[in-house]
Amino acid sequence: MPGKNKHLLRYLEPKIRQLLTKKFSGLILGPRQVGKTTLVRDLLEKFDNKIEIFLQNPKVRLETEVDPSAIIRQVKASRIKPLVFVDEAQKVPEIFDSAQFLIDEGSAQFIFTGSSARKLKRSKVNLLPGRIKRFHLDPLLWGELGWIKKSSLGDLTLKNINRKTGYTFEDSLIFGSLPLIISLSDEDKRDIIKSYAEIYIEEEIRAEAISRKIGAFSRFLELAARESGTSPNFSKLSNESGVSQPAVKEFYRILEDTLIAERVDPYLKNARKRILSMSRYYFFDLGVRNSLAKIPLEKNTIHAQKGVLFEHAVILEIIRRIKVLNKNYKVCFWRTAGGAEVDCIIDRGSSVIPIEIKSSKYISASEIKGLKIFLNDYRKLASHGYVITMGEKPERVSDNITAIPWFYL
């Protein structure tokens, strides 16, 4: 088992290293505490000509807000072209204008990180189209934790880049996979994850200028976390949180824009059966979701919510792989008015991969009824379907359906 400070490789590292080598500029978006700052600082360690601006520091943020063009003067004072690292760039969006001037002039290279696309959108910030490459960093993927035995999902295949750390898949169902918790004791994991919600509410939500609704938002956040992975009932959430339905919808947009929740839309292509069209939302990390939902961060949680937690884990892994591999795919679900359902549809444009997710080890015919219906209705787009299980070995369930253990994903 690695020591507490053991460096875990990330799939994004080679891409950022290549970016730095080619003198391009980049923006790395991702939720808080997924390792953006650590990743960039590690890669910049050998660079002598760097300027670092940490906008999380109130003093630095205030100075930059007062004079966002100060970075231009700092760069001009440098004898050699510097590499400028701006951490939590959304806190002072005006800095992007200064960056554009310097990038266009060829005077500096920039790496930005950010944890909220919302403030950038609302500020109508100049995101330097055509000038910077964008990346996304999530909590640790299975291959970053050494859990993949044999990947079987075609062009979404990944290989392990780290050895197993001693942190297990079952641990992740309770505590999630934020990098900073992997080597901590269970007690410390609980403390870190619980404080995440407090920091998120205090800093991100107050920054969205809805302080007057912070009590209602806190109630909504717990309810939304409990509903994570389902299509939310806005009327029910409105009644239970004490805010209007339009406010509930706005709260969900905040979760999405601050990268706390992933939206999964229904698959709607030319089905013969009427499709239910309400989107689903999955919180970005299971530990954060469990804590926000006031679910005990204990081993018994797995037994009480095994199916929900397992589905979350698989859906999040698929979404993260699509981002890491830079695929232009969309993750959807499929459910008809008649009750036929498939948990995950990977829409690749010209073809789709339907995936059912079951937390049991063995699959009965009744459990894949929806998958069979989908394969029949969409046989021109889907040639094969999968069932992801907690079993030990792959099994051919039918001519066009294979059940695979989660570590074969």
Automatic annotation (TrEMBL):
<feature type="domain" description="DUF4143">
    <location>
        <begin position="203"/>
        <end position="360"/>
    </location>
</feature>
<dbReference type="InterPro" id="IPR027417">
    <property type="entry name" value="P-loop_NTPase"/>
</dbReference>
<dbReference type="InterPro" id="IPR025420">
    <property type="entry name" value="DUF4143"/>
</dbReference>
<dbReference type="Pfam" id="PF13173">
    <property type="entry name" value="AAA_14"/>
</dbReference>
<protein>
    <recommendedName>
        <fullName>AAA+ ATPase domain-containing protein</fullName>
    </recommendedName>
</protein>
<feature type="domain" description="AAA">
    <location>
        <begin position="27"/>
        <end position="145"/>
    </location>
</feature>
<dbReference type="Pfam" id="PF13635">
    <property type="entry name" value="DUF4143"/>
</dbReference>
<dbReference type="InterPro" id="IPR041682">
    <property type="entry name" value="AAA_14"/>
</dbReference>
